[in-house]
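=== RUN LOG ===
request id: a7f3
mode: sequence -> structure
chains: 1
length: 357
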Amino acid sequence: MTLTVAEIASRLGAAYEGDGACAITGVGGLRDARRGDVTFLANPRYASAVGATQASAILVSAAFDRKASVALIRCENPDAAFAQVVQWFAPAPVEWAPGVHPLALVAPDAVLGEGVRVGPFSVVEAGARIGARTAIAAQVYVGAACEIGEDGRIYPQVSLRERVRLGARVIVHNGTVIGSDGFGYTVTAGGARQKIPQLGTVVVGDDVEIGANVTIDRARFGKTIIGNGVKIDNLVQIAHNVVIGDHAVIVAQVGIAGSTMIGGKAVIAGQAGVGGHLVVGEGAIVGGQAAVTKNVPPGQFVSGYPATPHQESMRLHAHIARLPEMRERLAELAERLARLEGKPKAAGPAPAGTEPA
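=== RESULT ===
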């Protein structure tokens, strides 16, 4: 596709500066864009890259005040606007023809909606129900009595264990396991670990996207719940009986322990850990690599180890960084005080081999 700068601005309802007739044929990042591409600037920290970009046009905010040698398209939200533009230039998505591949195994009593696709070497167990137009790729396991809503997309090597329920328009990426047993054991009198049966299930809402190699454990009893519109990045572990509210975001390598509740629209940043039986309030933000050991109030931003309000955590880290300097200063003050008091300088440890017998 080819669009002019003026046409892109018109589609976005935005104003532009520069050559409106300039032809745009693709998209790219500020650093890797080439002539003919449109790019965007959403984070001011990258503003210095504007002067070096090879792109032909840049989506910027209305407040952007630097000079540029290429066309500027001023948007209220350059990030969101660029997401729209990408769709116009993106290649057509891979289409999977509906139907059951001859090498797939589908139980006789499984119910497949109109236009469902089941790829080669996939297995659909007894009593499973798959909604209309959902595509099941190759090597997918759909367990007994699973339910998958309409217009879903399940990528290769996903495992959905028995009785798991997915809503409509759910995307599950490669290698994810939903409904594996929760990590539950009791200790016998002899100290051995004895497995506690995990009798519950996992319920995933509508419009959820789950990344690659995510693990979501079934509840011990009841449900592990992933709300509507939740977005989960790769390599996330969600333990049994966790409840994640609508439109929350869970970033890569996060671990959430059992029976914890994550409020709607909360954000758990990468590599954060959330302890068990806690509540992270609605709209709260947990910073990257934070360790949450107590409840987080709604709307609060916490970070650090253990997680504390972000500004407090930043002050603590600043003090820790100054500890070597403070130690040296303290030693200097102690020596000055000793001189003022007329005391001899404290002797260091005796050299090795000279200790008295």
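=== NOTES ===
The chain has two domains: 3-89, 99-311.
The chain has a mean pLDDT of 93.
=== END ===
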